[in-house]
Amino acid sequence: MEYRQLGKSGLRVSVLSLGTMTFGGESNFSKVGSTDVKGARRQIDLCLEAGVNLFDTANIYSHGLSEEILGEALQGKRDEVLIATKARMVMSDGPNEGGASRYHIIRECNNSLRRLKTDHIDLYQIHEWDGQTPLEETLETLDSLVRSGKVRYIGASNYSGWHLMKALAISDKYGYARYVSQQIYYSLQGRDAEYELVPISIDQCLGILVWSPLAGGLLSGKYRRGQQGPEGSRHLNDWGEPPIYNEDKLYDTIDAIVQIAEQHGASAAQVALAYLLKKPAVTSVVIGARSDEQLKTNLGAANLQLGAEELSRLDKVSAPVLLYPYWHQAKTANERLSPADLSLIGPHLQLAK
Q1: Which domains does the chain have, with CATH numbers?
Q2: Peptide bond between residue 325 and the one before it cis (omega within 30 degrees of 0)
Q3: DSSP track, 88-146
Q4: Reduced to 3 states, what is the DSSP secondary structure of residue 70?
Q5: Strand locations in the chain, DSSP E?
Q6: pLDDT above 90 for 159
Q7: Are 204 and 340 in contact, with CB atoms under 8 Å apart?
Q8: What percent of the chain has pLDDT above 70?
Q9: Residue 240's pLDDT is what?
Q10: What average pLDDT does range 151-170 have in this prediction?
Q11: Which of 238 and 25 is assigned the larger pLDDT?
């Protein structure tokens, strides 16, 4: 297992980490999975054996049950691992039951600590943007949690580019603890993050944790053009997260993934995961699994090496179009592009040659 530095911090995390949205199975989360404590212990042991050291959860997953199961399953192993969790989502009825206010963050941090059976959270992430709470309030609160020892590092999740840059500027201005990472959706099905979030990560030395790297299962190889999906699976027009805008492009991408997987004797999922591990600023890819066998397969992605031609093929078939102002920069100002700029524009310049 490879370990990478998380942003500008001194923390080293495994390139694959375990996401625990499947733990619990309460209410709507039952559609994702319903792993109990016994199953969680098995999955954690598989991960530890493979070298995984980061386990990611959130207070909203099964309304706290995921954290409880993770905390119980990690008893006796807490010092071997890093725990990441999140807050921001609405937990119950009431005007202060969601958001990134001082009131909500402090209460939810304490609740998470209790459920996780630990005295500190290694990476505490704001799960989603809150446009009504001043960022100064959110960031000062997170800074106080770091100074108290309850939280080691902080990160953002699902921010836009300007949200993230505004937060970093405020932290720098007041000397608050700075986000060291962002957890984002990024996959061969949807490379929208490359417009701003990846370049910002390169420029600002942030680590990227990737959620839903298989696009909710779309890239698992089970969905093929002209074929019925697995029994009980969703139809493409049922997909809301991630949304599907171009069905033909999706199937072209899946075809390429499957063909490359066959050449390696690997699974489609392993190829999709291994591709992301080669992308700039990606620190760790968060994998989840409904079963032990699925988890074992996905863990194998850490050892799969894709060739330059294979990576180029996947880049090309899934490439996002250049939006403005990027197409204009590529056409008229490409002699002074930074490494951050080139993470998006560079491949398009190569294709244009």
Answers
A1: 3-307 (3.20.20.100), 321-353 (no CATH)
A2: yes
A3: -S--SSSTTSSSS-HHHHHHHHHHHHHHHT-S-EEEEEE-S--SSS-HHHHHHHHHHHH
A4: helix
A5: 3-5, 12-14, 16-19, 54-56, 82-87, 121-126, 151-157, 179-185, 207-211, 282-287
A6: yes
A7: no
A8: 97
A9: 77
A10: 98
A11: 25
Radius of gyration of the chain from its Cα atoms, rounded to whole angstroms:
20
User: 285 is written with which tokens?
Assistant: 């890819």
Which one-letter amino acid corresponds to residue 132? Answer: Q
Q: Which residues pair with 19 in a beta bridge?
A: 56
Residue type, 349: L
Q: What is the pLDDT of residue 321?
A: 94
Residue 12 DSSP class: E
Decide if pLDDT at 40 tops 80: yes
CA distance 303 to 293: 17
- 159, 182 contact by CB (below 8 A): yes
Q: Which of the following is catalytic: 3, 61, 176, 324?
A: 61
Q: Is 197 helix (H, G, I), strand (E, B) or coil?
A: helix
Annotation says 223 is catalytic: no
Cα separation, 144 vs 135, whole angstroms: 14
What's the CA gap between 82 and 180, in Å, rounded? Answer: 15
Q: Tokens standing for 13?
A: 């995390």
Crossing angle of the two packed helices 161-174 and 197-204, in degrees rounded to 10: 20
